[in-house]
From TrEMBL:
PANTHER family: EXPORTED PROTEIN-RELATED (PTHR39201), FLAVODOXIN-LIKE DOMAIN-CONTAINING PROTEIN (PTHR39201:SF1)
GO MF, one example: electron transfer activity
Domain Flavodoxin-like residues, every copy: 6-138
Protein name stated in the entry: Flavodoxin-like domain-containing protein
One protein family per Pfam: Flavodoxin_4
InterPro entries in the record: Flavodoxin/NO_synth (IPR008254), Flavodoxin_CS (IPR001226), Flavoprotein-like_sf (IPR029039)
Amino acid sequence: MADEGSLIIYFSLTGNTKSAAEKLQKKTGAAIYQLQPEKPYPTDYNGIVAAGEKEKDNQIHPKLGGNLPDFNQYSKIYVGYPTWWSQPPMIIHSLFEQGNFTGKEVVAFSTSASTPLADTVDVIQKLAKENGATFVVE
Ligand SMILES: Cc1cc2nc3c(=O)[nH]c(=O)nc-3n(C[C@H](O)[C@H](O)[C@H](O)COP(=O)(O)O)c2cc1C
């Protein structure tokens, strides 16, 4: 059944999380939105690692590019990201700062080489709670 009350927001640089998000979209019928930074990340792997590490070490929350969808019509927000150093990338912090998550249910999904989703969940749970949302496990 189409799930019109849900929105999938994901961040993906090399396509893995994008394809997971698209599978989830097919399954749920939710709306889907790809998170973009205002300043694009490098396209080569070493460049991505260097940029990501700089953000992580300095707790830089990069500015989002474009406008987030209006959250009003959604009750559930799926948040998808690649696992970076066993954590969500810093841009996920930017998402929680910019989006109005009050009263929403947040469901996290992640892709990684091997780190389990569970390792990243503490951060998402904290971000959800701080922003008035409930973290749910599906
Ligand atoms: C900066 C960086 C850090 C990463 N850290 C981890 C990690 O801690 N554990 C892991 O299993 N994979 C790690 N990976 C691998 C990515 O999580 C994995 O390739 C992911 O599926 C990429 O998603 P994307 O294609 O949507 O960008 C890292 C990749 C990058 C670029």
